[in-house]
Amino acid sequence: MGRRKVPLEAALRKVDFSTARQASPVGSAEERPRLPAALFRELREQARLENRTYLMEHECKELLEGMGIATTGHLVAGSEDEAAEMAHRVGYPVVLKIVSPDVVHKSDSGGVRLNLHHSEEVRKAYREIVGGYRFQHVVGVAVQPMAVPGIEAIVGVTRDPNFGPVLMFGLGGIFVEVLKDVTFRVLPITDRDAEEMIREIKGYPLLKGHRGKSADLAALKSLLLRISALVVAFPEIRELDLNPVFLYEQGHTVVDARIFIGETTDAETAAPPAANLKKFFYPKSIAVLGASGSEGKLGYNVLWNLLNHGFKGRIYPINPKSAEIQGVKAYPAIAAVPDAVDVAIVIVPAEAAPAAIEECCAKGVRFIVVETAGFAETGEAGKRVQARLKEVIETHGCRILGPNCSGVLNTHHSMVQSIGLIGELGKGNLGLVAQAGVYAAGIITGLRNVMDFGIVATIGNKMDISETDILEFLGDDKHIDVIAMYMEDVTSGRRFVDVARSVTRKKPIIALKSGRTEAGKKAVSSHTASLAGNDEINSAAFRQSGIIRARDNEHLFGLMKAFAKQPLPQGDGILVVTYTGSLGVAATDTLYLNGLRLADLEPELKTRLQRIIPDYVTTLNPVDYSFSMEPGQLKQTIEIGLESADVSGFIAVIQGEILGSFVDVLKKIDTRGKPLVACVACKEFMMADVIRMERAGIPVYSTVEMAAEALAAMRRYRLYREEASK
Ligand code: ADP
Ligand code: MG
Questions:
Q1: For residue 558, is it within any domain?
Q2: How would residue 299 be classed by pLDDT, with cut points 50, 70 and 90?
Q3: Fewest CB within 10 angstroms: 145, 266, 412, 602, which?
Q4: Per residue in 488-547, pLDDT tens?
Q5: What percent of the chain has pLDDT over 70?
Q6: Ligand 1 proximity of 114 Cβ (cutoff 6 Å)
């Protein structure tokens, strides 16, 4: 065990100590960072020989210097004399720090001596440090220039079980310790990601300039990009902490660094993208293995759904016990089917599934939907059967959806594979990806009253086809305008972010992700990891890919229908028309809280509006009819708003008891690209009229807050899309 021998002269030559005290010109962000591959291999090898899972501070700094990142240097003295000599060379004041493979947190154990002004202080500090670690292995004592104080920042990398390596940035000291003012991005990051990270933390005003202090934002951005490049190039870097980095008006310097190394793991070797899924979503023929004629069985339901939703392709029930099922000719085995089969749905018991799938593969079926449960989700035995399925499909090169799912539904292909009986469905523009089959079946049964779905895919245990594969397909499918997702985890890591980012440039994705914390599961070694609760990473990944994150199911449904039924607002001015003043006020608050505002009508339109409203009405937005709003008045008010250049959307607050009388009137108005949403307080007590209104294409909310929020989300998405397409 020992310190890598870097001769003092060589080490001094490599390090430009001026960076610690003055500005260091840091290269532009566009410039490709140098990657010190040979040095990294050497350091990793040394650590391996010494059974270390991390690199010591001086090793990290040598690596960073090798990438052109300014640090306080990596000199390590092996004797008191050497320490004094080094201090003289780097220039006073200096800092001495313990260098030991046994000491990860140096100052906690008294291993850091700051601000030493002359050689006697250095010698004394050296003796004290070495003496204080008599029982540890001491490699030496680091000698560094005392960095000029700057704004303290922390830059780190940790690994997320869903998304792989993520970068963290925040301000140091109490900002990170107490306020947890940090932000994350999935690696690798783009220029724009780096800029957003810097702007996104609450402490950003301090970086931009406060009381005469500011930070070099271009250099900071370059640092984030270089760390991203470093970790992507060397996947053995598991975690990294630069804590602190001192940020200056010009440049910055890394004062402390720590890198944890290890083997690359599963998240980075996720399943490859599924090939073209067109035949999977639009098959010409479907076989149902385990189809049944007994009501109540899942095999009954699946076949019933296929038959009763009018699937136009060929349907082959497979069941050795019957010649005919639900009036359709059945086959004893898939091998007996005379024609080609595009998709096979498997509903046989889990133990029989591997053999059934083997037969499908032998028949040449490329896509298999396994709806049966009882696999990895149930425990060890189930995991083994699932592993067996994987072997089978890998041998034959076919793809599986599920197991433990509820198949796919595509109303544009009259195809419903669901395990629950589903009533009539309209053909719509909504795509939905759900993890749990029962969830999807359940919500569709209800939501079909007020929303029309296009494609719904349930992914279950997603041992093969993932949420990302489906997202990619829905992004290109011409019937789908809006995509909703309900997920418990994301297995395709980085690819999810890339695919989602390209899809959101075309159509909105609204996602609900349960934020169950994984923090307890992972070994938390670095500071960064301890700050990376699972949900922060989810939020970051969603933001990075332009996904709109829903808070809960209700929020998800509320956003889904607004996006699916109404156009995106062109500007931020909204006209609120209400039968009650209080809901007008509440709507106004929510609009302003969400970046929208009340529109201001042109003088001529104001005069016209005044003519139709009762004299006691004083404000012209919200237009408050005070308990006397008739359908005709609402129509005329909206028509005036349509003529205003400042009105980009409408909220109509309607009285529930007379809701029915508004439906036909509103249905006839051509809102010419301006979104209209309605609020009906206590709408759950007048569902029949609400359903009529929803069918007329006008989303109805029980609160004005949700109505205003929906418009705001649509406005934000429009801005995002415009910005992203630049
Ligand atoms: P650790 O995090 O292992 O306890 P650090 O190297 O981060 O040790 O040192 C602790 C603190 O001492 C730092 O947060 C920083 O404030 C200060 N410090 C360390 N090295 C220097 C240096 N070269 N110049 C100025 N301050 C330093
Ligand atoms: Mg530190």
A1: no
A2: very high
A3: 266
A4: 878 778 899 999 999 999 999 999 987 555 544 444 455 666 666 667 888 899 999 999
A5: 91
A6: yes
Ligand nearest to the CA of 61: 1
Q: What residue type is 201 in one-letter code?
A: I
**Residue 256 CB less than 6 A away from ligand 1:** yes
Q: Candidates 114, 525, 527: which one to mutate for ligand 1, based on the most atoms within 8 Å of Cβ? A: 114
Six-digit token pair at 485? 């997702």
When pLDDT is averaged across residues 447-467 and rounded to a whole number, the result is 93
The finding on whether 144 has its CB within 6 A of some atom of ligand 1 is: yes
Are 77 and 173 contained in the same domain?
Answer: no
Q: What is the residue-averaged pLDDT of the chain?
A: 90
Residue 21 sits in a domain whose CATH number is 3.30.1490.20
258 CA: nearest ligand 1 atom: 3
Cα–ligand 1 centroid distance for 237 (angstroms): 22
Atom of ligand 1 nearest to the CA of 172: 14
Structural domains of the chain, count: 4
Tell me the whole-structure pTM to 2 decimals: 0.88
Q: Which string of b and e fits 93-114 if b means at least 16 CB within 10 Å? A: bbbbbbbbbebeebeeeebbbe
CA of 255 to the centre of ligand 1 (A): 6
DSSP bridge pairs for 624: 578
Alpha helices by DSSP H, 152-236? 174-177, 191-200, 204-208, 217-233
Structural domain span for residue 431: 278-480
Closest CA to ligand 1's atom 5: 256
Final residue belonging to a domain, choices 145, 170, 192: 145
Number of H helices and number of E strands within the chain? Answer: 26, 31
**Residue partners of 499: CB distance under 8 A and separation at least 6:** 468, 471, 472, 475, 492
Ligand nearest to the CA of 113: 1
Model pLDDT, residue 518: 52
299 and 412 both lie in a single domain: yes
pLDDT at position 24: 35
